[in-house]
Amino acid sequence: MIFLSITVILFAAIGVEFERIISTLTYFVNAKEVFTDKEQFCYDDLGCFNNSFPWTTFPTKLSSIPISPEKIAVEMLFYKNKSLSVFNEEVFDPNLPTIIGIHGWSPLLKRTSRKYVPKHIIFIADIFNAIQEKMDGNFIIVNWKKGSSTLNYPQSCSNIRVIGRQIAISLDKIANLDIENVHIIGHSLGAHMAGYIGKELQLMDKLVGRITGLDPAGPAFTFPSMWYDEFPNELEKTHLWYSDAEFVDVIHSDAGTFGGGHYGLSKPIGHIDFYPSMGRDQPFCNIYRYHNRLIEISQFNRLAFCDHRLSKVYFIDSIKRPNLYQFCNETICNTLGFTATKPSSRQTFYIPENNLPKFNKRN
């Protein structure tokens, strides 16, 4: 907690502008907090959440009680032809695949020159733009900016539990939606939120078709390996896990520990886990670091999170050039990114730097 506090103080001192929060109508249930005690916290229409083990065990102990759903004001937004609109079930086509994008923690973002989409969801727009060139579908962005923009990272970690249930309830309400035809793509905390959505839908006897985790967040979600041997069913509730969907694929681009300067989870958590550049020190970021040793303050955020962000770039590039992302381990071959397929057994791919395709990182 001390390290987290010191870090956010340093970030705050940089003076980075916050993205203006877009304001639209919400599709979600209007939930008000009813009560909180040592064992649980509850909201109207959403029910209660466990506030005991494993949520009270380090590192999840770092997380706070979520802020109220009313203050989080999460939104589901349609994205089509580079434009955003409020989710409208009347234009939703249940016969098409549904792809949902979820951003992560976003307190340090500058305003963007792209007028059609806020900075914190640009990467989702880029993913959707690439997919829309290949196929049609319902493209939905989960905007939880008000719950993710706090400098209090543990607070954002806690907020995603409530949002996960809100989204699951909302998806369950959509008429004729085939949950098996839903693909959720989440980055960092958004990856774990995707897992929570999957867990909540299973309580409704529905299984999400696919979840893609783009460098799922490590801080507050990393446990000693021996704990999984002792409490596997409990600890798996706290983060994205392969049982959260019919197919869970994960790209680890900044795997390690927070103390070691890494922001991604290193543990394999999917049916298939890819570790480009062995999961850290991505080639582009190394070049960026070596050639920018005396960086300006305005570049600090881009540099500090470069490896963490590269998972998004790999995924976008895999949509455009899937043939360059076919890799093999000692057992099977598969494709990193959008065209990945579920293996018959859980697999990990550690990909050396020299096996990765070359690309220019533009965002």
UniProtKB/TrEMBL annotation:
Domain Lipase span(s) in chain numbering: 40-323
Assigned GO CC terms: extracellular space
Entry superkingdom: Eukaryota
MF (Gene Ontology): lipase activity
Biological process, per Gene Ontology: lipid catabolic process
InterPro entries named among the record's database cross-references: AB_hydrolase_fold, Lipase, TAG_lipase
Record flagged with keyword Signal: yes
Subcellular location per the Swiss-Prot or TrEMBL entry: Secreted
Broad class of the protein's primary localization: secreted
Gene3D superfamilies the UniProt entry points to: alpha/beta hydrolase
Keywords for the protein's UniProt record, in alphabetical order: Secreted, Signal
Signal peptide as annotated in the record: 1-18
Similarity comment: family membership: Belongs to the AB hydrolase superfamily. Lipase family.
Protein name: Lipase domain-containing protein
Organismal lineage: Eukaryota, Metazoa, Chordata, Tunicata, Appendicularia
